What does this fold into?
Amino acid sequence: MATDNPGTTEPPNAPRSRSDLFWSFTWLALQGFGGVLAVVQRELVEKKRWLTREQFVEDWAVAQIMPGPNVVNLSMMIGDRHFGISGALAALAGMLAVPTVIVLAIAMLFATVADHPVAQQALRGMGAVAAGLIIATGIKLIAALRENVMGMAACVGLAAATFVAVAWLRLPLGWVLLVIGGGACAWAFYRLRASTATTRGDEPRSRS
It folds into this structure.
């Protein structure tokens, strides 16, 4: 008897309308100060449940390699998935409209105190909090790799190689994506083909 794969189950909820997409992503964008990854994961996976944890990891990976801000790419992917091009535009408008007005107002106010030492120290403190949020979210998402076709060991190895290449060797991100990301895609393709071949081999042959 086949068992359900938790990594491929459909999310229990979905956007109700284009307006739901617009206001949901507006609220998400307004919370995205600093550690935006943590906010996106909490809102879309834990609260709204539009994505499973495994689907979020996969979609976020695609959004990262596309040109433009990751969260904007992800919002358009979700909008298009449920309502086509109009859904993608509604999600994009939610990400940009209200936040743009607020950011412009903050920028004008901050310009008067940007050179003040107190303001600079405060921003450094916010940066530490943002880094902590990103690390915490990464740890929460590690469990999703258990269902990855490459296997947990390969995922950990690729993550470690990427960390060394970016944080230690300071290699250009484009080359890291091309070499390590390309290697990950090739290994995943190999594992998928091997899994498919094994499954076909286990199927009983029909009697002639």
